[in-house]
Amino acid sequence: MAETIRCASGDWVEVRYVLLEPADRAANLPADTAAQPLLVWIKGFARQAAAVGEELAIETTTGRIVTGVLTDVNPGYSHTFGRPAPELTHVGRDLRARLAAHRASDAVTPAAKAGE
Amino acid sequence: MASRTEAILTRKGEIMKRALGMDYSEFERSPIAFDYEGMMAAHGYSLDQITAIQAAAGVGSTPLLELHNLTDLVRSYAEPGKGARMFVKDECANMAGSFKDRRASMSIHAAKAKGYAGVIAATSGNYGAAVSSQAARASLACIICQEAFDSRHVGQPEIIEKSRICEAFGAEVIQMTVGPELFSHMLELLDETGYFAASLYSTYGISGIETLGAEVAREIAALTGAPPTAVVITHAGGGNTTGTARGLRRAGATTTEVVSASVDLSGLHMASDTDFNRKSFTTGHTGFGVPFATWPDRADVPRNAARALRYMDRYLTVTQGEVFYVTEAMAKLEGLERGPSGNTAMAAAISIARDLPRDATVVVQETEYTGAGKHHWAQLNFARANGVEVRLGDPTESVPGRSIVIPERPEQIHAVEMDLGKLRHSYVRNALQHAGDGYDPTAEDITFLAADTNSTPEAVEQIVAGLREG
């Protein structure tokens, strides 16, 4: 079983809270959105020790005190570049070849060759 | 009982008046008309003063690059004698990596001058990075509200990168799930903190973009002896088009065609939890571009300083696949690895340069930074993971939210012309609706609507008469 992640007071953490329950949401929302609560995630320094899933107060970078459920301790970022899209890997090779062929052809005026 | 959202919205006028440090009511003339130029001039900064403020903030005077390889590529398939010279303004060179620094630098300057302790902006885009960066330099506290996740806590990777960069600059980032209540929460935070509203749509922000248009006009004139033939501008909320066009005019480029361009995301609902992660562009798309062109005053300020329909001569749409193709091509042909925003206009520029004579000049007036999350590979991988089909083929076959079709050849890049007449019609209908039932537009209203739609009083009268009959 995975070990429970805990924060100590003063740790940089992330909490989640419900800003609006579905009943309190704006009118005229699409049905899929209206059925969901509006959730917020925010980071700050823990004001007390807690385990993930427990409620705690944090102090944000602007000094506000916000209460929510602990979701992460020392939260990071995992977005990436990922693998190249196979639909795009040929683009550089093809366009460079076309450009070279065009410049070698008679269609190119001396002015264009000089870059105008 | 009024909901929490409704309760705060009833106090919007009072909260925003304090948070903007500006009373918009003095510019109102009627339920339809207001003194736009009076409002724009009210901050009192000249273009030269704005340039100096921005220079001190590390913003502006970005390189204008001629794109020789891209120009020759277009000429390789254009008809003889056709294929305009292409240029790009490398706005990525600004402090936080986009033209949004021009907007943010003025908002932050105003906040500091007026004595606010901090600023708040609701934005999931580059503007958040720009505000966070400028606020850090000005020693102001900063809160950025972002629509970041769907209800599964899956984040659009481009927006997650924006969260990261805002936090890197020391901002407090409020990451929310999908919904327009982002703006009502921003009002609550403005009320709680007493901070300045660094709105994207304030007069400060829009005036800050005028330096970009003026730089383009002067730099092209210095190179070619003439104003640019066309400037292509990625369009969402209207600020980019408005500020650039105003700057072009101020610098004497009165004959330049102002071309707005957006990614076509028709059919996707912008407030839908399920559609949220089925789009590969988080801004610069028709989901913002059309509603803001046809009703700019939907913004978070009483009167939007960004009024794109006033300035656009053409409005073009391109597909997601075309922009991804162009993004890859720009890196490989021009050594410019940049983000989707400027490359939206670039796809449209490639399309129109093909039909212009060789001595014409086409300028794309921005680039933006790219990186993990924002990068086109990341976006295409994310699209696939969310059930969107990605394939090579004819881009006209793409269906936003269902398929992304990457062109096989540059000849397949064809921007689609939006009917400005229809947009003007929608705008006038919206203006009459907001004025209230039975309101009869005055001669001053008709003059205002003509100016606000880049049209004539006669054309507006005709639309009004048509709506009355309908």
CATH 2nd-level architecture of the largest domain in chain B: 3-Layer(aba) Sandwich
Uncertain ranges of chain A: none
CATH class call of the domain at 6-73 in chain A: Mainly Beta
Query: Which sequence of strands runs across the widest sheet of chain A?
Result: 2-3-5-6
Residues in helix, % of chain A? 10-25%
Report what the structure shows.
The complex is a heterodimer of chains A (116) and B (470). Chain A is elongated. Helix content of chain A is 19%, strand content 31%. Chain A contains three helices and six strands; from the N terminus they run E-E-H-E-E-E-E-H-H. By secondary structure, chain A is of the alpha+beta class. A four-stranded antiparallel β-barrel of chain A has the order 2-3-5-6. Chain B is of the alpha/beta class and 470 residues long. Chain B folds into three domains: 4-51 and 98-203, Rossmann fold (3-Layer(aba) Sandwich); 60-96 and 206-417, 3-Layer(aba) Sandwich (Rossmann fold); 427-469, no CATH class. In chain B, helix 4 crosses helix 10 (203-224) and helix 17 (443-452) packs across helix 18. The two termini of chain B are 37 Å apart. The model of chain B has no long low-confidence stretch (mean pLDDT 96). At the A-B interface, strand 3 and helix 2 of A face helix 5, strand 4, helix 8, strand 5 and helix 9 of B. Strand 3 of chain A pairs antiparallel with strand 5 (172-177) of chain B, so a sheet runs across the interface.
Describe the protein's topology.
The complex is a heterodimer of chains A (116) and B (470).
Chain A: E1 6-7, E2 12-20, H1 31-34, E3 38-46, E4 50-51, E5 55-59, E6 65-73, H2 91-104, H3 110-113
Antiparallel strand pairs in A: 1-4, 2-3, 2-6, 3-5, 5-6
Chain B: H1 4-9, H2 12-20, H3 36-41, H4 47-56, E1 64-66, H5 68-77, E2 85-89, H6 100-113, E3 118-122, H7 126-137, E4 141-149, H8 157-168, E5 172-177, H9 182-193, E6 196-197, H10 203-224, E7 230-234, H11 239-250, E8 257-263, H12 286-294, E9 314-318, H13 320-334, H14 340-353, E10 361-364, H15 376-385, E11 389-392, E12 403-406, E13 416-417, H16 420-435, H17 443-452, H18 457-469
Parallel strand pairs in B: 2-10, 3-4, 3-6, 4-5, 7-8, 7-10, 8-9, 11-12
Antiparallel strand pairs in B: 1-2, 9-13
Helix pairs in contact in B: 2-9, 4-10, 6-7, 6-10, 7-8, 10-11, 13-14, 16-18, 17-18
